[in-house]
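The instructor's notes for this session suggest beginning with a concrete chain rather than abstract definitions. Hand out the sequence below and ask the class to guess, before any prediction is shown, which regions might be ordered.
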Amino acid sequence: MPDEIFENGWRDQRVKIIPTGNVAPPVKRDIGVREAKGEIIAFLDDDTYPAPCWLDAALKLFEGKDIACVCGPAVTPDDDSLLQKASGIVYESYLVSGGHNFRYIPKPARFVDDFPSCNFLIRRDIFEKVGGFDTKFWPGEDTFLCLKVKQAGKKMLYHPAVLVYHHRRGLFAKHLKQIINYGLHRGYFARKFPETSLRITYFIPSLLLLWLISGIFSGLSAKFAAIYFLSVLFYLGCVMAGTILVLAGKKEKMENKIKLIFLVFSGIIATHLAYGIYFIKGLMASSMPEETADDR
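After discussion, reveal the predicted structure:
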C-alpha cells in the first residue's frame, strides 16, 4: 500500500496495490482490511517476507474456534549485512528482549497478549468488532490493537511454525532510532495502557540508567564507590557473557563472529541506554507526537 501510484513493471493479478496518500501505517492497514475479502486478515511489514509454509501453518491454527489471532517469530535473514545481523542478535539476546525474545527466534508455542504487527493474523470479525487499529500511534499501533483484543476476551496464539524473515535496521544509527521510538511509546503505554505495558521488565533499562548516573556520587563514599565499581564490572561481564552465549549457535565465519562480538556487546549497552532514556521520557509525556499532529 504505497503513498502514491507507482510503476515498476511488476504485475500479479492476485495482488491489489492501493495508493493511500501520505497516512500512517495503522491507517494504511485499516484501509487494507476494508478492501480485503477474506475471513482471516494477515499483516506483514514492508521489510518482512514469509517462510514457504507460513500461511498454511497459520490457517491450521485457526481451526481452533477460540483462537482470534495467530502470530510467530520474525527471524533475521541469512543474507542481511553484518550490521543488520548484529541488530537482530541484539534483539535476540535475553539481556535486551528478556522473556520476549521468542519474537525474534522460534520458541515453543504459547498464548500472548501483545505482539508486533510485522507477523500477525487476525479473524476479520474480531478485527471489526474491536474497531481495527483506529489509532495514530506508530510504533505501538499493534500494542493498541492487541490490548483491545485482550479486553474483548479473545485468545492470541504464538507458534514457531508461523515464521517470517525480517530485515533488520543496521547498527548503530538506524537500530537506535528504532529503539528510541520503542522506548518512548512503551514508556507512554506503561502509564496509559497498563494492562499489557506496566511490567517490571520494561522498566529495567531505565533503572540501570539511573544506577549508572548514580556514579556521580561515588566520590562521596569509598564503600559506595567500591560497590558501584563492582556493579558496573558485573554488568559489563553479564553483557559479554550474554553476547558470547547468543553468538554461540550462529553459523558465521570466525572473522565475522569476532566482529559480531564487539558489535553486539556495544549494541546491547547502547540499546539499554537509549531505551532507558526514552522510556522515562515516554512515561512522563502527556501525549505522543502523532497524537497532537494535524491529521494527514
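Then share the key points. The radius of gyration is 21 Å. The first helix runs from residue 25 to 35.
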